[in-house]
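EI: anyone free to look at a 249-residue chain?
SC: sure, send it
EI:
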Amino acid sequence: MRRIAVVSQKGGVGKTTTTVNLAAGLAKKGKKVLILDLDPQGNVSTCFFASNKKNMYHLLVDDEDPKNCIFNVTDFLHIIPSDKMLAKAELSLSGMPSRETVLKRRMENITNYDYVIIDCPPSLSLLSQNALTYAKEAFIPVATEYLSIDALRKTNQTIDEINELFSHKLKISAVIPTMYDKRIKSGIKALAEIKKGYNGLVTDPIRINSKLKEAPEKGVSVFDFAKSSRGAKDYMKLVEKVIDGDFFN
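SC: here you go
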């Protein structure tokens, strides 16, 4: 079972879009996928119109059985959703023993998925630390512009610090350029800079595409909303590389 954190310390880089469409694409390939919505904004949950009486807050704070928190999007795609209550979990977690590894302990009996994909908050919070100590792999979306490249470096540094502090072995498996527009020189330059720093980990870019923004309004992934769009084609290419374990350009 692959445990993947989709993480960036900068908002607006396509983190949730990547989580949603990567998970949905894997499910369409017959893989059993569980999404953990660990962002208090609950954007992944909103994208799938997913809600439960028991959710991520109850799993972390009340030690609720994860199985009672799961919402079935499809037969192959499940989610433990979150809502605004998750913002209150930080205070409760801060008083718990081994507070950075609560998620890991809560999820230790969940083994019946091919992939667990975690949508992380865009900050170095206790929720993020729990995601990173549970995950085995990190996928880092990075918009093809300067400030996102700086955030990529900071996210990499954070992962190194988490690994050292907790004797963990979280590895960066993929750096995913997003919002790419080959008509803009700064975007081309940014993509080259990303590849230079992370040779072998950089996937093909996700091109800018309005369908990626429109799909959540319908509660579906881009594959169900506009399967012939550039966004769908780019994310399916990513899905296939994830399955193959091949991120080399």
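EI: The domain at 2-244 is CATH 3.40.50.300 (Rossmann fold).
SC: 👍
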